[in-house]
């Protein structure tokens, strides 16, 4: 048994965030646990020592009103054709997307306030857990509402979180990964942006509760903030650099020879380069370089007509289709190419452009002009729709956003605007936005990530480069921006949390 070291509140939440985000998809994508306070769980474990769980967050008091940041967007200077100059904002399209965000949020507030998500067609709500809400939509929406300057709506979301979020009443199992990226990520990002300490208090409370789920016999993910690199790099896989979709966490060996960059492994790959950018620890970048090389060599497919896509690899056989979740990879390859120039950069930015184009074209082959969950690809590179299900997913617009920021090629804004129009035509209803089922018919759910990710990336696509500057922020999987060391709320070096080296544990951490 071991006890948690007496680290500072900031250290606890940041170390746990890094730990969970680093390896969650590889190890615990579908793990669940009960959100009891750490002290309550450990008190039932004979011989355990523990620290007390922080008290419940204080009740909301009068708060300062956010200043609408619309006026802070840089001036609009059209070129000879009336288009925005590269890197500058397009206020007209920003306002259109801001109204989309306002519409999605107002529907939630009217018909689903206090619940996890809106069901717009039935004008009702749904929760992820039985008889209780984890407030996923407010938690997921705060950073978006703040960035786009919707002051009233931001304060509504924050008020719900501060006054109604109560993890003590949630006695059923919850999804660890989704709770980390939506709830913990949303809290940390909102605090980072606005610095309301009450949000940090809730984040610390949640992090303390989540910490108990990492107490496993193998140390995976025990002490993950300390031993992540040692453990991850010791995983026995058939292909070096690739993360297996299924893993025996006790013996650190793959269970099957299945690899992909979509469900169950996507966030693992995404966070490698982002953790290097965020912390400056070169070990993460080395892992990213190894992963990018392995993806290119063993999974990436490039067709005769110039397409690129990443299917799933099962027992050394590559599939003939790709999942929408894999469409984030265009942005990942672009970021890797730009943030550290090396002999692979030119090739990787080319791969990024090809992946992004393939994902955008998968939207265009469908009558709805929205991407399906799966798209088939012929040997020549022709695309065919494998159904029409669309769950308001963000991955394609995420890569389009990154490609715009890194290249300022106007086609990416054109693609993004086409997707905006398709959302308005096929998914908008009178109280929000619905998804589509496999037949292309309306599906009664407005996912919380629609505001958190899809609409945020679309808004930023038409913002100037200083709005959530990629030199100062990284996005977590749920598109919650968190400042990089040396920037924003993490500019003061005195407040940095030391990055533990492999094998070096705090003296008061009893193993």
Automatic annotation (TrEMBL):
Gene3D superfamilies per UniProt: 1.50.10.10
Pfam family for this entry, one: Glyco_hydro_47
Enzyme Commission number(s) of this protein: 3.2.1.-
Binding site for Ca(2+): 477
Gene Ontology BP terms: carbohydrate metabolic process; ERAD pathway
UniProt enzyme class: hydrolase
Active-site feature positions: 178 (proton donor), 266, 373 (proton donor), 395
Entry GO MF terms: calcium ion binding; mannosyl-oligosaccharide 1,2-alpha-mannosidase activity
GO cellular component terms, semicolon-separated: endoplasmic reticulum; Golgi membrane
Cofactors: Ca(2+)
Disulfide bond positions: 327-359
Family, per entry: Belongs to the glycosyl hydrolase 47 family.
Protein name: alpha-1,2-Mannosidase
Phylogenetic placement of the source organism: Eukaryota, Fungi, Fungi incertae sedis, Chytridiomycota, Chytridiomycota incertae sedis
């Amino acid at each position: 048994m071991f006890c948690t070291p007496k680290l500072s509140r900031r250290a606890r939440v940041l170390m746990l965030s890094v730990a969970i985000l680093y390896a969650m998809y590889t190890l615990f994508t579908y793990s669940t646990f009960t959100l009891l306070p750490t002290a309550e769980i450990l008190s039932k474990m004979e011989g355990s020592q523990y620290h007390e769980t922080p008290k419940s967050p204080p009740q909301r008091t009068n708060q300062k009103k956010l200043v609408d940041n619309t006026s802070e967007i840089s001036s609009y200077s059209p070129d000879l054709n009336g288009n925005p100059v590269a890197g500058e904002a397009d206020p007209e399209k920003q306002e259109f997307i801001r109204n989309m965000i306002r519409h999605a949020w107002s529907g939630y507030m009217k018909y689903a306030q206090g619940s996890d998500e809106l069901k717009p067609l039935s004008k009702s709500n749904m929760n992820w857990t039985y008889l209780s809400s984890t407030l996923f939509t407010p938690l997921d929406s705060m950073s978006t509402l703040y960035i786009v300057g919707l002051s009233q709506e931001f304060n509504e979301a924050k008020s719900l979180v501060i006054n109604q979020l109560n993890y003590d009443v949630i006695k059923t199992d919850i999804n660890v990964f989704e709770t980390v990226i939506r709830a913990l990520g949303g809290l940390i990002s909102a605090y980072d942006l606005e610095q309301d300490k009450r949000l940090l208090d809730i984040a610390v409370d949640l992090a303390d509760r989540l910490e108990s789920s990492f107490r496993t016999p193998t140390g995976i993910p025990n002490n993950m903030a300390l031993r992540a690199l040692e453990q991850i790099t010791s995983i026995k896989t058939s292909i070096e650099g690739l993360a297996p979709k299924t893993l025996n966490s006790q013996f650190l060996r793959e269970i099957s020879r299945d690899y992909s960059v979509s469900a169950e492994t996507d966030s693992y790959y995404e966070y490698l380069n982002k953790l290097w950018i965020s912390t400056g620890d070169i070990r993460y970048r080395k892992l990213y370089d190894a992963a990018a090389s392995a993806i290119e060599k063993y999974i990436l497919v490039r067709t005769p007509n110039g397409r690129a896509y990443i299917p799933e690899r099962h027992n050394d056989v590559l599939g003939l289709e790709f999942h929408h979740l894999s469409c984030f990879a265009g942005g990942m390859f672009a970021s890797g190419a730009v943030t550290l120039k090396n002999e692979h950069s030119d090739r990787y930015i080319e791969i990024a452009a090809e992946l992004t184009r393939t994902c955008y074209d998968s939207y265009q082959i469908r009558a709805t002009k929205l991407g399906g969950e799966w798209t088939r690809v012929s040997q020549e590179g022709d695309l065919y729709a494998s159904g029409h299900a669309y769950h308001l997913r963000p991955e394609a617009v995420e890569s389009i956003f990154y490609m715009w920021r890194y290249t300022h090629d106007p086609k990416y804004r054109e693609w993004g605007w086409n997707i905006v129009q398709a959302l308005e035509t096929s998914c908008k209803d009178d109280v929000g936005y619905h998804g589509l089922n496999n037949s292309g018919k309306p599906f009664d759910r407005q996912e919380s990530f629609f505001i958190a990710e899809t609409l945020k990336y679309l808004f930023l696509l038409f913002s100037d480069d200083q709005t959530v500057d990629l030199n100062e922020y990284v996005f977590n999987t749920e598109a919650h921006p968190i400042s990089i060391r040396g920037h924003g709320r993490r500019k003061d070096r005195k407040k940095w949390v030391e990055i533990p080296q492999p094998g070096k544990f705090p003296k008061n951490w009893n193993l």
